[in-house]
Design brief:
alpha/beta; seven-stranded mixed sheet; 7 strands
Amino acid sequence: MLKKLSVLIPVYNEKDTIKSCVETVLNADTMGMDIEIIISDNNSNDGTKEILNSLTDDRIKVLFRKENNGKGANIKNALQEAEGDLILFQDGDLEYSPNDYKALLEPFFIYNADVVFGSRLTRAKATSIVGFPNYIANISITFLANFLFNKIFTDIATGYKVFKKNVIKSLKISSDGFEIEPEITAKISKNKNNRIFEVPITINSRSYEEGKKVKWWHFFTYVYSLVKWRIVD
């Protein structure tokens, strides 16, 4: 019985998109589930805090961190407060569209999934064209994850991941930065009992000038993290 969806939105300096993001999430198709939104702000300094303080919907909980320790720390902060049967990660910049929620949630109802990844790289849905180095980096780290953990992912760096509460809450997540993505992928992949699915999603990637925060060196932290969590129990 899946009755409630928790949407975790980690934010840092997203004043231009966060209000629209929250409104779109509240209007998304959650397949009949109640929704709660938990926003964790990583000590924004661009006016995002003021926008968050203006939100009054009782389905929204806002948490303010005193220090910016990275996306992973922000997600873990929000995760502590999540009470839903399913927990979904949503970036605040609207690169990922909440219009894909129904596609992300269906495998839990139809196939009794434990985890669902939304893949940007199947090209089955609208995909903004990014630079070639970004594409190579994504398929390279995904190939490495598949090789290390005997899987067939197409996109492990996706920001759209959905979990049954017991699955994500049982992970002892240690990463504070963007390497939280490969850490989670590694740990759910090592548990052979997890039923993992992947569905195509739309992606409207933004540029670095528009505020994109993943940098070139995160490729190497991803590689290190995947190898580390293959070895470390």
